[in-house]
Amino acid sequence: MHPKHLFKTAVKSIAVNKSRSALTMLGIVIGVTSIILIISLGQGAQSLILGAVQGIGSKTIAIIPGRQPTGPSDAAQMFTDSLKNKDLELLKRKENVPGAETIMPVVFGADTGAYGNETYHLTVFAGSEAMQKILHVNPSPGAFFTEDDVKEYADGIVIGYKVKDRFFPDDDAGSVLGKKIRIKGKNFRIIGIIPKEGQSSIFNFDDAIVLPYTTAQRYIFGTKYFNRIIVEAASEDVITNTVIDIENTLRTSHNITDPTKDDFFVETQADIVSRLGVITSALTALLVALAGISLIVGGIGIMNIMLVSVTERTREIGLRKAVGATNGDILFQFLIESVMLTLLGGAIGIALGVGLSYGASVAINKATALTWVFAFPVKAAVLGLGTCTFVGLVFGIYPAQQAARKNPVEAMRFE
Question: What's the distance, CA 241 to chain centroid?
């Protein structure tokens, strides 16, 4: 039988049983829709996260206390007090790290702030005056603290807009400047407010206070070490050498001769981007694998329905064989039907997945301050159609073989 006639016969068979065909395709539709939706949202999330990290600046280098974790059991080693003021002073010496343009210590944590009868759980970010430049913290109204404020343990703080709304919901931003929030028994004077668009890179300052690190160490945390030291290189060309200089300087400061005994590690933005890319890709692959289970379920459903169809059309099969159809013709006819069902389900799934992911990106942009970019996963669509074809062939071969093996005489007698 000519392939054209086989194709027409398959189309007619699917069209005659519309409801059964739709239910048969349902598992495929759900599976492909899930895959497209997951990959599209995964790509959007990856772009958002990596863009946020890159927004800190490609010349930024982070020095982190503790041994670099290689697994979950090493995570606790990151929380150490290995970065201290003597390290900061050595890193600031130009002869030690000539490629460093800006060096900023960072301490952070959380505490409860109070104003009148209101309390609010605050995120505390503390650094030097360079924080405004490196992390793009731009208060409006008000101003950022200065180098003199850092030296003098000044009590001036910059607050996020959520903190302002919690403590002073009825006041305009300008009138809040100069008012004081109490933390750990000490009053801190508000000198600036970070507006809603003040989220910078991976740091969210909306419900945070920002203040000099010296002030935070003395009055809030009671510590003499840093959670991070951020170094901004003079240019991207000197990043590698700057990392080497930082490591050598800190090893000398900590009396470390064996690099495997380092009580700190250094990360560039390229390192972070690469690591986050691997993590997000792995999570997306895991979710896709889980969604792919529905494709297998859909394939089993197709096999079951095709077996039912073979039984129902036994007389038809016998008649076709009686007028000259070969086993191969019958085999290909049922295989074509199976593949058409899966491909049609895949096409509907792709359309639904794209529509849902686009709608989700629009909703996220409207509901949050994030800039979520819709991503159409072309590779996922191609992969989805390819997988549907494969599923149709794999789960259609057994019913097709059963149909092809039927004896024409017995099939004609089937009731």
Answer: 31
**Could you identify the residue written with the tokens 């101003």?**
143
What is this structure's pTM? 0.60
Give the torsion sign (CA, 161, 166, 168, 169). positive
Q: Are 207 and 283 in a shared domain?
A: no
Number of H-type helices and E-type strands within the chain: 14, 9
Give residue-wise pLDDT tens across range 215-237.
Answer: 999 999 999 999 999 998 888 78
119: left (phi over 0), alpha (psi -120 to 50) or beta: beta
- The verdict on residue 75 lying in a domain is no
Residue 248 DSSP label: H
Residue 400 CA, chain-centre distance (Å), reads 43
The verdict on 257 and 289 lying in the same domain is no
Output the DSSP codes for 269-315.
HHHHHHHHHHHHHHHHHHHHHHHHHHHHHHHHHHHHHHHHHHHHTHH
CA angle 77, 82, 83 (to 5 degrees): 125
Of 201, 230, 262, which closes a domain? 262
